[in-house]
Amino acid sequence: MKLILLGPPGAGKGTQAQRLQESYGLVQLSTGDMLRAAVKAGTEVGKKAEAIMARGDLVPDEIVVGIIADRIEQPDCKAGYILDGFPRNVAQAEALDKMLAGKGTKLDAVVQLEVNDEILLGRIEGRAAQTEGGPRADDNAEALAKRLRVYHEQTAPLVAYYKQRGVLRGVDGMRDIDEVTRQIEGVLGLGEKKGKLA
Ligand code: ADP
């Protein structure tokens, strides 16, 4: 099963992706985590991405598309994966469609976590306070405002993109974590299949 979790920063994509990974053996592919690892390791990609990420802008498409193209070729992705933070604009979505078509496959579903902007700042402040080793470079008010703006301008159009293709499923991302998980399992027709999914 190949899924996308779609939603603004702080919507809970990472939390829910981890739960799906644990329950169903799908691999969580978070471009944000991969880019942060690259920054930490000081790779070429990391050097290009660091300042862009810190101010809340998008890293160039060719970088993230390249990262995902390589990653989904790895053997652990055979059983399926959850894309978290990718695609983030229409160009990335088109690149993904092409990538999958080239492999004779396609997405099963795009799950949209629906949340209001007003609650996001509070959630991200909470996360910044809890992060081991200090807050992320982009978990501050200024970068968050930028990330939300970028989300509405560039990522939100993907809702219509995937609706048109008949794969969009919406869940209420303002409910508590367990309830959101149940809703996701519901829209995907999972629940009875824990651990058995391929
Ligand atoms: P959040 O969802 O909380 O905004 P992420 O961890 O998904 O955070 O992403 C953090 C940053 O990493 C983004 O603001 C952006 O700079 C970069 N990034 C992650 N994924 C992508 C992507 N698909 N395209 C471009 N930049 C990305």
What can you see in these coordinates?
- The model has no long low-confidence stretch (mean pLDDT 93).
- The chain has a single domain (2-188), classed as Rossmann fold (3-Layer(aba) Sandwich), CATH 3.40.50.
- Helix content is 54%, strand content 12%.
- The chain starts with a strand and ends in a 10-residue tail after the last helix.
- Strands 2-3-1-4-5 form a 5-stranded parallel sheet, with helices on both faces.
- Helix 2 packs across helix 3 (44-54) and helix 4 packs parallel to helix 5.
- The protein has helices at 13-24, 31-41, 44-54, 61-71, 90-102, 117-130, 141-155, 157-164, 177-188; strands at residues 2-6, 27-30, 81-84, 109-114, 168-172.
- It contains 9 helices and 5 strands.
- It is an alpha/beta fold and 198 residues long.
- The structure holds adenosine-5'-diphosphate.
- Residues 9-10, 31-32, 35, 52-53, 56-59, 64, 85-86, 88, 92, 138, 147 line the site of adenosine-5'-diphosphate.
Bound molecules: adenosine-5'-diphosphate
From the N-terminal CA to the C-terminal CA, the straight-line distance is: 7 Å
Sheet-strand content, in percent, reads 5-15%
By CATH, the superfamily comes out as: P-loop containing nucleotide triphosphate hydrolases
Integer-rounded radius of gyration? 16 Å
Structural class, by secondary structure, is alpha/beta
